[in-house]
Amino acid sequence: xxxxxxxxxxxxxxxxxxxxxxxxxxxxxxxxxxxxxxxxxxxxxxxxxxxxxxxxxxxxxxxxxxxxxxxxxxxxxxxxxxxxxxxxxxxxxxxxxxxxxxxxxxxxxxxxxxxxxxxxxxxxxxxxxxxxxxxxxxxxxxxxxxxxxxxxxxxxxxxxxxxxxxxxxxxxxxxxxxxxxxxxxxxxxxxxxxxxxxxxxxxxxxxxxxxxxxxxxxxxxxxxxxxxxxxxxxxxxxxxxxxxxxxxxxxxxxxxxxxxxxxxxxxxxxxxxxxxxxxxxxxxxxxxxxxxxxxxxxxxxxxxxxxxxxxxxxxxxxxxxxxxxxxxxxxxxxxxxxxxxxxxxxxxxxxxxxxxxxxxxxxxxxxxxxxxxxxxxxxxxxxxxxxxxxxxxxxxxxxxxxxxxxxxxxxxxxxxxxxxxxxxxxxxxxxxxxxxxxxxxxxxxxxxxxxxxxxxxxxxxxxxxxxxxxxxxxxxxxxxxxxxxxxx
Length: 488
Prior knowledge:
Elements: E1 2-9, H1 13-25, E2 31-35, E3 66-67, E4 70-71, H2 74-96, E5 106-108, E6 111-116, H3 118-131, E7 141-143, H4 146-152, H5 154-157, E8 166-171, E9 175-177, H6 179-192, E10 196-199, E11 201-209, E12 212-219, E13 225-235, H7 241-248, E14 257-268, H8 271-276, E15 280-282, E16 296-302, E17 305-315, H9 328-331, H10 338-347, H11 349-359, H12 363-371, E18 382-386, E19 390-395, E20 404-406, E21 409-413, E22 419-424, H13 432-443, H14 448-458, H15 470-483
Helix pairs in contact: 1-6, 2-15
């Protein structure tokens, strides 16, 4: 039975990011990664398992809700601030030689918001007016001119009725991120620096061992069980984080539940169409639909090749991982979280209706949805692919609500700061560095003064709101543009 300082469960972008941070802060600390698959980034971090949007709220309309005619920009600014930390950290890692060629994991792709119909066009104009003067949203543009729309987005303009009222706002500062490639670069660097990675090992139990943790893992190929003792455990296992945290017995996870939602995408197989589109275009979700249903037509850059996909279409399965078990949901049920499940079941009837509608769609119905964006879409030019599994967080039941479904990420840690895990989904990977900073603050508060210099090297704007420091934002932005090779 070996001992390590840091045990990372899951070889996805979250564990890869935290491991890289710890190697900067405490290079002498030993690390081990357990991964149930035989390679890194095979689940949600895999590039075709997510949209690859560098989520910075440039185009995502669900981050700018409208209340009584006023657009609320607070969430958009908050997410953008977090994404700036990601850019800073990635730039630092490139400069240190931890990450290699940036074009393998990040590329410039315009982010576009799409409005169709008078009400949406009015909203989009108000959103543009609310964002364009904010320091973190420079060079935002807007048009409701049909000729400009057709020129910028030919696939969306071709075949569209002349009377369609459309508008777009956009930023050329958007990015497409291949989190799978980035994860692989991080893990390769980790191995070179002494981190042990155990592929094909599924963690089956986490239990307290004094003030440390005993982690038990099963070799999925031989059936052999292994145990290690770790000073700190991070559960970055995607949907499987919930049941593993439950097994740890920490009180902080009690009452939490998970709602699994599978995703599907249409992927374009016609290279001519792929080349005619160069943007990530986000629209508004249908009335009554949850934020996860926001449709988007996305340019992807994966392994040096351009791609195009549309979605997501929701599916449902009780699995907590794409390659998980149909018993995952049922195994996660506890006496303490049953009220949370029941409460969400009663309160989220819109979500239930949406999922039923999505499950009933055949390929023709999916193409009909695509035609709202691309009127000339043909079924023979697209194929259906299965995306990564998302497990939305259901927070514990309480007064006055009986559990609440959260469409974001939630960090859970015990009071001693010796174990932590990340639950939830979007914006997830895009703000992994910010989430890991929060983990450090919660679990390693006693080290933060000692680490402050190194943290500022990795995250120059740490502790500063760039929205209040436009000059600093410009300096850091220009630097990351050059280092990440995002200058056009």
